[in-house]
Amino acid sequence: MATNEAKGSLLSSTVTLSNSMTIPQIQLGLYMMSGREAKQSVHWALQAGYRGFDCAQVYRNEREAGNTIREFLCSDENTEGLRRADVFYTTKLASNSTSYAAVRRSVKNSVNASGLGYVDLFLLHSPYGGKDARLTSWKALEDAVGDGEVKMIGVSNYGVLHIEELMASNPRIKPVINQIEVHPFNTQTSIRHVCAEHNIMVEAYAPLVRAMRMKHPTVLELSKKYSRSPAQLLVKWSLQHGMVTLPKSTHRERLIENADIGSFEISQEDIRTMDALDEKLVTDWDPTDAQ
Ligand SMILES: NC(=O)c1ccc[n+]([C@@H]2O[C@H](COP(=O)([O-])OP(=O)(O)OC[C@H]3O[C@@H](n4cnc5c(N)ncnc54)[C@H](OP(=O)(O)O)[C@@H]3O)[C@@H](O)[C@H]2O)c1
């Protein structure tokens, strides 16, 4: 069943990056999904109208995610005639390395595992490994773009100093994205500020606070006020801050619900109330101040 007619779905919404390329503003996160779950969730998401998927080498589901996208494009279910270029696939380097050759090999392995011919966005997953590894890994990503393996490149979990270090190195290709944990309980104002200064789009990971604050009184009160679920309120908050957002779900009805947020707007006053919930909550890891 095609469900992309879901009322108020924002799945066709895109944003334009500093390189003038566009990406879907809501993408499905694939963290903590087994290969089987990733196959099922990516399939449901494609049926529902998702066109962006956030994978990583460490998620160990690149093969299943990529193959599910490829199979969908070739199947009878693809009634819209979608092509490879209509789907946006991200993956991330597990470990930065001072070996340029190791990073190039690792990127090629990811491209091959996905079976998609190229990766739309390749990210350095974290700043761990030290300055030399960060800058060598970045150079390898730049060359992967030059060789057509990757369309665009960015970083993840980069703090203010890592962004400034990369920009000070005069990179041939500037990062288009910094993917960091952002939600009302960790608003990351200083990292978002430095990204804005350098025209780097912020991708919000854990936008649902990993389901840890669904019953917070303010979230429940605003949910009731807007007649939306806590998850919808949280995803909408990240969009109204102009970010790309990556809600994850292994449930079909939830992944539809999370994108069905077109027909309401949070008032600026309520956005400020949500911003004030900041408690610098880290739901998983926080490499943003790594040396
Ligand atoms: N770069 C990084 O270091 C990094 C780190 C973390 C995450 N990420 C990316 O960001 C994505 C999202 O982050 P995340 O997966 O950590 O957390 P999240 O999206 O904030 O939350 C996912 C949790 O919320 C639940 N959920 C989903 N929709 C719901 C709904 N409508 N109602 C109630 N509960 C709901 C999910 O359960 P079910 O699955 O059972 O529905 C899951 O437990 C990841 O999948 C990954 O792609 C990147």
Automatic annotation (TrEMBL):
Catalytic machinery residues: Y59
Site (Lowers pKa of active site Tyr): K92
Binding residues for substrate: H125
Keywords for the protein's UniProt record, in alphabetical order: Oxidoreductase
Domain spans labelled NADP-dependent oxidoreductase: 33-279
Pfam families associated with the record: Aldo_ket_red (PF00248)
Stretches of the chain forming a coiled coil according to its record: none
One function term, GO molecular function aspect: oxidoreductase activity
PANTHER family linked to this entry: 2,5-DIKETO-D-GLUCONIC ACID REDUCTASE, ALDO_KETO REDUCTASE FAMILY PROTEIN
CDD domains in the cross-refs: AKR_AKR1-5-like
Protein name: Putative oxidoreductase C2F3.05c
Source organism, top-level taxon: Eukaryota
Entry's family note: Belongs to the aldo/keto reductase family.
